[in-house]
Design brief:
- By secondary structure, the protein is α/β, with parallel strands linked by helices.
- 24% of the residues lie in helices and 38% in strands.
- The strands form 2 sheets. The protein has a 4-stranded mixed β-sheet with strand order 1-4-3-2, covered by helices on one side. It has a 4-stranded mixed β-sheet with strand order 5-8-7-6.
- Strand 6 and strand 7 form a beta hairpin.
- It is globular and about 45 Å long.
């Protein structure tokens, strides 16, 4: 029986830029930052209160996972904000929204009460979009 998820990947256009965004803007902690073969880097971050979930910031490069053509297609999808999404939680959405805006995080939707909860939407520096909801 599967008991938990401990790694998930977010495809990014540039790992150095993603490092800055996730660590310095979102406040995530670096779990692992290590070379992984020629020209590759294993970079994982964690929400500060969920250290057992590693988010692998995966560079979209030709090589192990992608052909030259599929890498370009994936970069196009990510940069257009049309590949995947995630949902993050916080204790106080209004406070977190203002903190993240002050750090330069761009929101496409301000905090709004919806039938499913209180949420705001933002994109990372690669184009991946996320819902940010208030816990509880």
């Amino acid at each position: 029986m599967i008991t938990r998820l401990n790694h998930v990947s977010v495809f990014v256009l540039n790992q150095d830029s993603a490092f800055d965004f996730y660590v310095n803007k979102l406040g995530f902690k670096v779990h692992t930052d290590a070379p992984m073969g020629p020209g590759m880097r294993w970079l994982t971050v964690c929400p500060p209160e969920q250290l057992d979930l590693e988010i692998a910031l995966m560079s979209i490069d030709e090589g192990m996972m992608f052909t030259k053509e599929s890498a370009q297609s994936m970069r196009d999808l990510v940069s257009k904000g049309t590949f995947g999404f995630g949902v993050f939680e916080c204790e106080n959405l209004l406070v977190t929204y203002e903190e993240l805006k002050a750090k330069g995080v761009e929101f496409s939707k301000a905090p709004t009460q919806e039938f499913y909860g209180f949420e705001a939407l933002f994109k990372d520096d690669s184009g991946n979009w996320f819902s940010l909801g208030q816990k509880g």
